[in-house]
Write a structure and sequence with these properties.
The structure holds 2 protein chains of 2 kinds.
Chain A: H1 2-14, H2 27-53, H3 57-62, H4 65-98, H5 104-112, H6 119-130, H7 135-144, H8 155-180, H9 183-191, H10 196-225, H11 228-232, H12 238-247, H13 252-280, H14 302-333, H15 342-372, H16 376-385, H17 387-390, H18 393-407, H19 415-439, H20 443-451, H21 456-467, H22 469-485, H23 488-493, H24 501-510, H25 514-544
Chain B: E1 4-15, E2 18-29, E3 33-37, H1 44-52, E4 59-64, E5 67-71, E6 74-75, E7 83-86, H2 98-103, H3 112-122, H4 138-150, E8 156-160, H5 168-185, E9 188-193, H6 196-202, E10 205-210, E11 213-218, H7 220-225, H8 230-235, E12 240-247, E13 250-253, E14 256-259, E15 269-274, E16 279-283, E17 289-296, E18 300-306, E19 312-318, E20 328-333, E21 338-343, E22 346-352
Helix pairs in contact in B: 3-4, 4-5
The chains are: A mainly alpha, B alpha+beta.
Chain lengths: 545, 373
């Protein structure tokens, strides 16, 4: 998530407008784009209306002590997750790119694996391993007679679960950034008498600062928006509090107030991120002239480094897989019914496919408008579709619940609203994939088609869309993947009786049925790895070409 | 006069604040080949895009085949103009084979496969229908692009720097082929280039553009011998400029006295164009010029000569005439050339130096020089 948003923002700056100023976008493009815009604005408008509706109570609403408590707890978690993931990623990134660490490539692959795990599966793994009557406690009880472990629920569990799956975002960004460094600058520093450590501190680190800032802020945003892990850990951050509010008292005003504060925090993080990115370009080094770096000998640091890498991989990859397999075997031994996972798996696949289709279709006119008809209107339109990136799923879901229950009762509790929520949430991913593939298509091709007698619509069908095929597939795969994992929107908006894998894992885990949760968790990760593998292969092939 | 294939009347086009075309007017008869020449950024590509309908003019009208396609309240979209365009980078559809590319613009009701075969044999690519664009060489891609644009039988064919992506030696060969193909097809062509040699070779007519304006449109020879502006003189071939002053129906200049062909007020300052092959030099102790530079071009030496006023002109000499820098030389005009002079940046006239009919003395009065030659 973090990485492709980053490259996308880069591209936005890059585009000077290869499409030139074609008279006026054809109706076939701008009409659907505006329709998409209106749909996307729906939850935000609803939220604004709700908050405004509070009128003079607004300030009283926002400055309740309870909201302040939640804010402190949320910020604490966000800061801790960002800190931990940076502390783990920076040495890992350096070790896997610039040193003679044994099995460097293997470590690089293993440390990226947690990316496929949704946060509630991480939460499930952490509870199953370290929770009361968990695997660790039972192990220790057998040998040492230990009855209680330190409490895992609350802050420590949430921190562990979220950091575990979000550090690869920082790691991958840093690795890419270190690979992009011009090694001759380090040689210059060494030749000027700075030793290795001084060179790192005075030359390398300042160059990495923008990458560190943006990747850490993206992880912060991820932690802020997370619902799955915090709810399983019963750690009351905004997302969890909003859900509780919705489940129990149904106090719409308080829920709207909480959502508003959450959105404001998210937007602040995004703004800081955009700001640091703005300064980042001064640090970027021209690619292509960079010298091949020398792999530094670790010497005495070799063993500590290996231990460090092993610990990280043990905790974030080996542990989850063993926990899931352990509970799978347990489930088989006790004769747990496996068929319970089939219909959720089908539902998940079905609704994700639907969401991928709808989102890509919605993203197409937006991407075409943004790339081929650059201007104030189209860039406003494109930026608006990024709302999904700033708004946590729980907020969009809640806004749609309220809106549906009041104004669109026909669609409420149907797949239409669920798919609409997914579309709003994941539109940025699809727009991003489509726009980067569109950027690679020479606009002259479309113009050539026009001069040969094709209307804009015919040109779109015979030239643009066939050439965008790869971008369309990647966009659809991304949306499919994230829809599979999405929890809060699924919980709030699924039609009654429509159970998905995400919802099953969440409910079984929160009720302590680990054996039942293991099957859907493994199935979910298996199903997600198909589009993931597809994208990785695609990217690799792209590089070879 | 033949039917007009293209007529542009006072077109203006701005991109943001910068003006790409200013009051551009142009007429081209059917079946003619017009080469538009100009430095990059002079608006020549914009003109093509306006004729093709890929841009809208801010003002002015464009007619194609005597039908208004752009003007006040009128804008015919590109697909309805019957204007073919060959792009600089060819813009071949990468997901279609050669046959499909060429067939793309041909209407379904007409006999498509036959037309594809026809144009492909015209460009000499018959049998390559099933190749994909990336399997073709640069020259072949170029010809597919040409065939593709010709296939729908356009009223006008526009070519935007079609040879700029080819290697130098290939370029010379391909342009001969393309000229033959186009002559064979009998189509009206507007061709854009920044290479003067290409323009002089390809065009029935050459138009020279500068900063959004059309400076001159004429036959290749006309453009070279009778440049309308100093810009054209300098852009086509090499030219140096000297300042002269009108005195008694003669222009007095450092290279000699040029008889005036028309009335100009005495004291009028004029700009005189001199090409390197107009000027002959010979070592002379009392000569007025000093050799300041020398470029060896193989067959020729190109000498730079500084005149007493400080002006520098160039002279083309055979390779066996080797003079060291610093040498004093006498200058004289070779006969048979037309010296053009300009008033207020427009051509005011020209004078052809006749054989033996010396433009009066160029060198110091005291220097003795026979009137041989």
């Amino acid at each position: 998530m973090g990485i492709d948003i980053a490259t996308r923002l880069k591209e936005i700056k890059m585009v000077g407008g290869p499409g030139r100023n074609f008279p006026w976008p054809p109706t076939i493009i701008w009409l659907p784009a505006v329709a998409v815009l209106l749909l996307v604005l729906l939850p935000l408008a609803y939220l604004a209306l709700r908050t405004m509706g509070a009128g003079s109570d607004l300030w009283g609403l926002l400055f309740r002590p309870r909201i302040f408590q939640i804010l402190v707890r949320t910020v604490l978690l966000v800061v801790a997750v960002s800190g931990v993931s940076l502390a783990v990623s920076l040495p890992l990134a350096w070790l896997t790119t610039r040193t003679d660490l044994p099995l460097r490539r293997v470590w690089a692959v293993l440390t990226a694996l947690p990316l496929v795990m949704p946060s509630y599966v991480a939460g499930f793994v952490v509870i199953a391993a370290f929770g009361p009557r968990g695997m660790l406690q039972q192990l220790l009880a057998g040998t040492f007679g230990l009855e209680r472990l330190p409490e895992i629920y609350g802050f420590p569990g949430a921190l562990l679960a979220i950091a575990m799956i979000s550090y690869p975002y920082t790691l991958l960004t840093l690795q890419a950034s270190i690979r992009g460094l011009d090694y001759s600058l380090e040689e210059a520093s060494l030749s000027l008498g700075n030793n290795g450590w001084k060179t790192f501190r005075r030359v390398v680190l300042p160059q990495l600062r923008p990458a560190i800032a943006t990747s850490t802020l993206l992880v912060a945003l991820y932690a802020l928006k997370d619902f799955g892990a915090v709810s399983l850990m019963r750690y009351e951050t905004f997302t969890w509090a909003i859900y509780i509010q919705y489940q129990t008292s149904f106090d719409r005003v308080l829920a709207a107030g909480l959502s508003t504060v959450l959105v404001i925090v998210a937007i602040i993080i995004l703004f800081i991120e955009a700001y640091t990115r703005g300064t980042a370009k001064y640090h970027r080094v021209t690619v292509g002239i960079a010298r091949q770096p020398v792999y530094r000998r670790l010497g005495a640091w070799r063993w500590p480094s290996l231990v460090f890498c092993s610990l990280v991989v043990l905790l974030t990859t080996v542990l989850p897989i063993s926990v899931l397999l352990y509970w799978l075997i347990r489930a088989m031994v006790v004769g747990e019914r496996f068929d319970i996972a089939w219909s959720p798996a089908l539902n998940s696949g079905y609704v994700s496919l639907l969401a991928a289709l709808v989102t890509v279709v919605a993203a197409l006119p937006v991407a075409i408008l943004a790339v081929r008809f650059p201007g104030r209107m189209s860039s406003f339109l494109e930026r608006t579709t990024y709302i999904g990136f700033a708004l946590p799923g729980i907020v969009i879901a809640l806004a749609l619940v309220f809106f549906g229950a009041n104004y669109a009762i026909v669609f409420y509790q149907t797949l239409v609203f669920l798919v609409l929520a997914y579309m709003i949430l994941f539109l940025p991913e699809a727009v991003g994939a489509l726009r980067s593939s569109l950027l690679q298509i020479n606009p002259r091709l479309e113009e050539a088609a026009r001069t040969m007698g094709r209307t804009p619509w015919q040109t779109l069908r015979s030239i643009t869309i066939p050439l965008m095929r790869s971008g369309i597939l990647v966009g659809a795969a991304l949306v499919f993947l994230t829809t599979m994992k999405e929890l809060p929107a699924t919980l709030l908006l699924s039609p009654i009786g429509f159970r998905t894998l995400a919802a099953s894992i969440w409910s079984y885990t929160s009720e302590g049925f680990f054996a039942r949760a293991a099957v859907p968790a493994l199935l979910l990760m298996l199903l997600s790895s198909v589009p993931m593998a597809f994208m990785v292969i695609r990217e690799r092939r792209g590089k070879i070409e | 006069m033949n039917r007009l294939a293209v007529r542009c009347t006072e077109i203006n086009k701005k991109f943001g604040d910068s003006s790409a075309l200013q009051d551009m007017s142009l007429e081209l008869e059917e079946g003619k080949f017009l080469a538009l020449l100009g430095p990059s950024g002079c608006g020549k590509t914009t003109l093509l895009r306006l004729i093709a309908g890929l841009e809208r003019p801010d003002s002015g009208t464009i007619e194609v085949g005597e039908r208004i396609v752009a003007g006040k309240e009128v804008f015919v979209p590109p697909e309805k103009r019957r204007v073919g365009l060959v792009f600089q980078d060819y813009a071949l559809f990468p997901h279609m084979d050669v046959g499909a590319n060429v067939a793309f613009g041909v209407r379904r009701d007409s006999n498509r496969p036959r037309r594809v075969e026809e144009v492909l044999s015209l460009v000499g690519l018959r049998g390559l229908e099933h190749r994909m664009p990336h399997q073709l060489s640069g020259g072949q891609q170029q010809r597919v692009a040409l065939a593709r644009a010709l296939a729908p039988r356009p009223t006008v064919l526009l070519l935007d720097e079609p040879f700029s992506n080819l290697d130098a030696d290939l370029r010379v060969r391909v342009r001969v082929e393309v000229r033959d193909v186009l002559a064979c097809a009998g189509v009206t062509v507007v061709f854009v280039t920044h290479d003067q040699e290409e323009a002089l070779f390809m065009g029935d007519l050459v138009g020279v553009m500068n900063a959004g304006r059309l400076e001159q449109i004429d036959s290749p020879e006309g453009i070279f011998h009778r440049p309308a502006t100093p810009f054209v003189a300098q852009f086509i071939g090499t030219a140096d400029f000297l300042t002269g002053q009108v005195e008694d129906r003669t222009i007095i200049s450092e290279v000699g006295h040029i008889p005036l062909q028309q009335e100009l007020p005495a004291g009028q300052i004029v700009k005189i164009m001199v090409r390197p092959d107009f000027i002959d030099i010979e070592p002379a102790e009392t000569g007025r010029g000093i050799v300041t530079g020398r470029i060896f071009q193989g067959i020729h030496y190109l000498y730079s000569i500084r005149l007493p006023s400080g002006a520098v002109i160039r002279s083309l000499q055979h390779h066996n005439r080797e003079y060291p820098p610093g040498l004093r030389v006498a200058l004289r005009m070779n006969p048979g050339h037309r010296i053009t002079y300009f008033v207020d940046e427009r051509s005011a006239g020209g004078y052809v130096i006749g054989s033996g009919q010396a433009v009066s003395e160029v060198c110091d009065e005291g220097e003795s020089r026979g009137d041989e030659h």
